[in-house]
Each structure stands twice: as structure tokens, then as C-alpha cells.
Write a structure and sequence with these properties.
Distance between the termini: 36 Å
Strand content: 15-25%
Number of domains: 2
Structural class: alpha+beta
Oligomer: single chain
Shape: rod-shaped
Order of helices and strands: HEEEEEHEEEEEEEEHEEH
Helix content: 40-55%
Number of strands: 15
């Protein structure tokens, strides 16, 4: 009788143990599923946030058009470097950011002369420090170029000298602002200023011209002793513009809005960890059951 009771008790304990194992397995599986589901939810939220930021960035960017002409001459092939240097705050203040934050440029009263002086300082420092521009592009045969995806902010235009014919064109650096227009777009067209300098002929060209002139004079004197020779000399002339940049855009200034990107890598990593934990727990439990 006692043995029978012990057997029954042992069977009951075995049944309870099996029931406990089944319950533990279900709990572990449920926990794993929940972690995987949580990870997927966080991934979906991350994707939504990234898409929203991308849409916002796209909405607050436009096309920058640079028209390079001087007295009707299209400066085909002139190269422009475009740097983002700062922002225009809602308070009306211009502030330098990033690599340009510590440069000794002062926008002063935002007058044309103050902006031109600031542009000159920023260009000199950027070139000296070897900063990489956000965009580099060359003008087409009409002296025009377009850059897409330029977000709202302050930019430095820095051009490189170019010689066309017997004239060298030196572009003046300029600070421009990309902001919302009345129609909601962020497109902007600018017309940089240039200092043009006529290039004097080289010494070889001058000698060649002199020889040609002498031959002509000798030939003319042999047939007509009373002929006169005209002598012309080359001179160099320089025309300098104000150095400011004309721009065309419409609309009122809108406050700049920052983009919150720091949670992106955190949530991404956390989602991956949760999914990995869930899969690992499931795999471990299946391995224990096989044993």
C-alpha cells in the first residue's frame, strides 16, 4: 500500500514537472516573440522617423543657380566651390557653424561691405585650412550652373580665376542665404561679381609685332618717302565691380529648424539587440529540448 502511494506521488511529481517544463517553454517562447515583435516595432518607428526627416530635409532644400557673366561675356568653364558656413537665426542674427565657427569673420551690420569683408575672410581661411566644399561645379557654355538639394542656410561662394581670350576674370567671394520663397520653394539664382583684367601680350608676341611693323614701314618707305607709320602700344585696363553678389528670390525669411538625428543610431542598435536576443533564446530552448 505504501509502495503504491509512493508510485502515485512520483507520477504526480513527474506530471507536475512536465507541466512546469511546458509552462516554462511557453513563457520563454512568448518572451522571445514579444522581444522580436518589440524589435520590429522599433525598426518600423525608426524607418518612419528617418523617412520623415528625409522628407523634411527635402522640403527645406532647393536649387541654387549661379549665372557667371561679365559685361555680356559668358564665363564658360569657370569653377565654383560652395561651402555651407552657418545659419540665419529667427532672431535675425547670422551665426557661423561647423568648420567656420571659429573663423574671425564678423557680419557687422549686414551691409554689403561687411558681408563682402566676411566672405573674403572665410574664403582665405577655408583655402588655407584645405576645407572641402559641399559642392564643386563648373559653368556651362552660357556661364550657368545649377546645384540641387541645397538646404536653407548661409553659404560661401568661392570661384576660381579664369582667362577667356585676352581677359582674366577674378570672381569675388560672396555670402548668400538660401531661404523659403513666397511660393514655399528654396530656389535661388545669384549673379556673382568679377574683376576683369586685360592680359598684356607676351614678349614674344610684342617682338613679332615689332618685326612685322618694321617690315611694313621699310616697304612703305621704299615706295612713298612721305608715308607715316602708326605705332600702338598695349595697355592693360582693369574694371572692378563692387564685389557684392546680386541674387533673385522672393518670400519672407522663415526660422530655421534643426533636425533631431541622435536617436536614430540608438534605436536602431536597440532594435537589432532585441531581435537578436529573441532569436537566440528560441534557438537555445530548441537545443535544450533536443537534448
Amino acid at each position: 500500500m505504501k509502495i503504491q502511494k509512493n508510485l502515485m506521488a512520483a507520477r504526480e511529481m513527474g506530471r507536475l514537472e512536465r507541466l512546469g517544463v511546458i509552462m516554462n517553454t511557453r513563457k520563454i517562447r512568448l518572451f522571445s516573440v514579444l522581444m522580436c515583435a518589440l524589435g520590429l516595432v522599433m525598426y518600423i518607428m525608426l524607418g518612419t522617423a528617418v523617412a520623415a526627416h528625409a522628407d523634411e530635409a527635402q522640403a527645406e532644400s532647393g536649387t541654387l543657380n549661379i549665372v557667371s557673366r561679365d559685361d555680356g561675356t559668358a564665363l564658360s568653364g569657370i569653377k565654383w566651390n560652395i561651402y555651407r558656413v552657418g545659419s540665419h537665426l529667427a532672431t535675425g542674427e547670422f551665426v557661423l557653424e561647423g568648420d567656420f565657427a571659429d573663423y574671425p569673420a564678423d557680419f557687422g551690420d549686414l551691409s554689403a561691405s561687411a558681408m563682402q569683408e566676411a566672405a573674403q575672410i572665410l574664403e582665405e581661411n577655408a583655402i588655407a585650412d584645405g576645407l572641402l566644399p559641399g559642392w564643386t561645379a563648373s559653368a556651362d557654355e552660357n556661364g550657368e550652373l545649377s546645384v540641387n538639394g541645397v538646404a536653407a542656410g548661409l553659404y560661401l561662394l568661392s570661384g576660381e580665376n579664369i582667362t577667356i581670350g585676352d581677359v582674366t576674370y577674378d570672381p569675388a567671394p560672396a555670402i548668400i542665404e538660401v531661404k523659403a520663397n513666397a511660393d514655399g520653394s528654396y530656389d535661388l539664382t545669384v549673379y556673382p561679381k568679377f574683376e576683369s583684367t586685360e592680359v598684356p601680350p607676351s614678349s614674344s608676341q610684342a617682338d613679332s609685332s615689332s618685326d612685322v611693323g618694321s617690315s611694313s614701314e621699310e616697304s612703305s618707305s621704299s615706295t612713298d618717302t612721305s608715308s607715316n607709320s602708326d605705332v600702338s602700344s598695349s595697355t592693360s585696363s582693369t574694371s572692378t565691380s563692387s564685389g557684392t553678389t546680386n541674387s533673385t528670390s522672393s518670400g519672407e525669411k522663415v526660422p530655421q529648424t534643426g533636425q533631431l538625428w541622435w536617436p536614430v543610431p540608438i534605436f536602431s542598435a536597440l532594435g537589432i539587440v532585441l531581435i537578436g536576443m529573441g532569436l537566440r533564446v528560441c534557438a537555445k530552448k530548441e537545443h535544450d529540448n533536443d537534448e
